[in-house]
Amino acid sequence: FIGEAPGADEDRVGRPFVGAAGRKLDDIIAAMGFARSEVYIANLLKARPPRNRNPLPDEIADHAPFLVGQIRAIRPKVIVALGRPSAHYLLQTSTPISRLRGVWGRWEDEGWPVDVMPTFHPAFLLRQYTPEVRGQVWSDMQQVISRLQELS
Ligand code: URA
Known about the structure:
The chain contains 7 helices and 5 strands; from the N terminus they run βααβαβααββαα. The protein has 152 residues and is an alpha/beta fold. The strands form 2 sheets. It has a 3-stranded mixed sheet. Strands 1-2 form a two-stranded parallel ribbon. A hairpin with a 2-residue loop joins β4 and β5. The longest helix has 21 residues. Uracil binds next to α2.
């Protein structure tokens, strides 16, 4: 699961997704039938942008090599891109997340492809906690569960 950047809570603790969005992500992971220890969680940016503003292109270019190093070390079966910055970086597109989500993309690293499922960021889900958005995120995660079953 690849998010955007640490927030204030994550900055303090030094771990990704430990605040409110992290608790929502924990719920999603548990609903998928996984323990948090069975998945790897990272962020596109490794430091918190001032006042939680959106990452700037220069920041993404500076920080992304660390994420690529993490992906190479983990070699995940699939990647869930949480929200726009991570989906846009991994899929090298500027298509709105509302159109990207639910459709498999692919991240290719030196001939080694990984399926990428873009979905809404858990912080967006918390702000927009409607049956529609919840259903969309859950349907995206069901696709991930199916793909993992096919791969195992
Ligand atoms: N939002 C993110 O994208 N990452 C975190 O670690 C926390 C909140």
